[in-house]
Design a protein that fits this description.
The protein is an alpha/beta fold and 296 residues long. It folds into 2 domains: 82 residues, no CATH class; 169 residues, Rossmann fold. It is built from 11 helices and 9 strands. The protein has a 9-stranded mixed beta sheet, with helices on both faces. Strand 8, helix 11 and strand 9 form a beta-alpha-beta unit. Helix 7 packs parallel to helix 8 and helix 9 crosses helix 10. It is elongated, with a radius of gyration of 20 Å. It starts with a helix and ends in a 20-residue tail after the last strand.
């Protein structure tokens, strides 16, 4: 791990201590911009409070940054603990980091992803799936068919590992010989590695579930797939709805919603999603606009 990658972890990871005051994404963006604009900021040598103050950082922020960067021993301990659990960090500046996340999310890209499983899946062509935890039967069949077709069409399935639509699609994909990436919202170490599967967390590998984590990871699920299939959504309620609305507003990827006759599906169509049925899943590439091949 190069010094810049260690710096990302020191500034953004709790290192197993929930009281550790790490930088938020906006604060990290601001610091990165100041460092890039600093005339003598060549990235070499020890960073001192004098440098940070010259960059325009407040005394409080300068002290905070230096304190975080100085906890090298704590980082080494946390990295070794993660390695024993099979958990590997991939920072935003790593060559392995998902390219679509960097491209689509820009400044909202997670500073680091903790990974457990097959790292080779990170930059494979993928489609995503979201949906409710409590599914109607027809919607469950749709989620399962998306997973099965992802496997048959040689695409990795990205989902959120929650009960309901996520796991229905994931299990169907793996059963058909496919590949799965799961963005978890709970402890990464809970999920044992499986063949053709990769578990990801934008928080520490031992961080517990929070509602905020469940909401936050939706943007990553939407941004990692060339197309996002919405198996079922509740109107103006829940992560599947708000994640899809956010995607449609930002244009991260194509959004395809199951034709289930629901008011939520109709509203998403009005915002720009496309309506699909089970029969439409036989060739994902045909679902894109004619002038756009979203599998390239």
């Amino acid at each position: 791990m190069i010094p810049r990658e260690r710096g990302f972890l020191l500034l953004t990871s709790h290192l197993g201590d929930p009281e550790r005051r790490v930088l938020s994404y906006p604060q990290l963006r601001d610091l990165a911009a100041r460092v890039a604009a600093f005339p003598h900021g060549d990235g070499e040598g020890e960073l001192r409070e004098f440098h940070l103050r010259q960059m325009g950082c407040s005394q409080e922020m300068s002290s905070r940054v230096l304190h975080l960067l100085g906890q090298e021993a704590e980082l080494d301990w946390y990295l070794s603990r993660g390695k024993r659990q099979g958990c590997i960090p991939v920072s935003r500046i790593s060559a392995d980091y998902p390219r679509l996340l960097r491209f689509r999310l820009g400044g909202e890209t997670p500073g680091c992803l903790w990974c457990r499983g097959d790292l080779q899946l990170l930059n494979t062509p993928a489609v995503s799936l979201v949906g409710c935890r409590e599914l109607r039967e027809e919607n469950r069949l749709f989620a399962e068919e998306v997973g099965r077709q992802a496997a048959l069409q040689g695409l990795t399935l990205v989902s959120g590992n929650a009960r309901g639509a996520d796991r229905a699609a994931q299990e169907s994909c793996l059963k058909a010989g496919g590949r799965v990436i799961s963005m978890v919202a709970d402890e990464l170490i809970k999920w044992r590695p499986r063949e053709n599967a990769l578990y990801l967390s934008e928080e520490d590998f031992d961080a517990p579930f929070t509602t905020q984590r469940a909401i936050s990871r939706n943007r990553c699920i939407h941004a990692m797939g060339a197309m996002v299939f919405v198996a079922q959504a509740n109107l103006e309620k829940g992560g599947s709805w708000y994640g899809s609305v956010q995607n449609l507003r930002h244009g991260w990827s194509h959004v395809a919603v199951f034709r289930d006759g629901s008011e939520a599906a109709e509203r998403l169509i009005q915002m720009g999603a496309i309506l699909v049925s089970l029969e439409d899943l036989k060739d994902f590439a045909l679902l894109a606009q004619p002038e756009q091949n979203f599998l390239i």
